[in-house]
Design goal:
Largest sheet: 4 strands, antiparallel
Distance between the termini: 10 Å
CATH superfamily of the largest domain: bacterial protein sp0830 like
Helix content: 25-40%
Strand order of the largest sheet: 2-3-1-4
Number of strands: 8
Strand content: 25-35%
Length: about 180
């Protein structure tokens, strides 16, 4: 079965560097095959003959890179189900001077936050944004005009923020493609 391996907080602002080649090597040393990394933000897809342990993978990565790397391992069918739940009109448009377009993200959840009340715990405000929970994720969209009111911005730096890793919807859709 194929799995998505998502790392939290790597390659951000030049800190906690995890080069894709070394990321692949660590995963291959743990028995993953056909490993593919996608953009340089801690995304990989690989096949494994058994369900890999998140803690085993995280420990191997931390031993190799010498810093804490919160790690999610999500089975391919779940990655596909999350991507399939993203409404097609939810896009991640580049910022423009007129603030048109949308910012849309998938918040992949660690088990501590993976409950149907996750949007409420994230202070979801339907006046400013749309959020929906699916097993393993919260999918969110906000207009670029309302982006400064996005609930996710208010969660950064809180304890809850440590229980998720965020990817834009374009990356989420690509991960679903890679696990197929």
């Amino acid at each position: 079965m194929k799995y998505a391996i998502l790392l939290r907080g790597v390659n951000v602002g030049g800190n906690h560097k995890v080069p894709n080649a070394a990321f692949r090597e660590v995963l291959e040393s743990l028995g993953f095959t056909d490993v593919v990394t996608y953009i340089n933000s801690g995304n990989a897809v690989g096949a494994h003959t058994k369900a890999p342990s998140r803690h085993e993978v995280q420990k191997a990565l931390e031993d190799h890179f010498k810093f804490t790397i919160p790690t999610l391992i999500i089975p391919g069918p779940q990655i596909q189900a999350i991507a399939a739940a993203i409404p097609p009109e939810w896009t991640n448009d580049a910022p423009k001077p007129d603030k048109s377009g949308n910012k849309s993200d998938v918040l992949y959840l660690f088990e501590e936050l993976d409950t149907p009340d996750a949007p409420t715990r994230l202070n979801y405000n339907p006046t400013n944004e749309q959020m929906m929970y699916v097993k393993g994720a919260v999918i969110a969209t906000v207009t670029r005009k309302n982006q400064t009111r996005y609930s996710l911005l208010k969660v950064i730096g809180t304890g809850l923020y440590g229980y998720m890793t965020v990817r834009n919807v374009n990356t989420a859709r690509k991960l679903a493609e890679l696990v197929s």
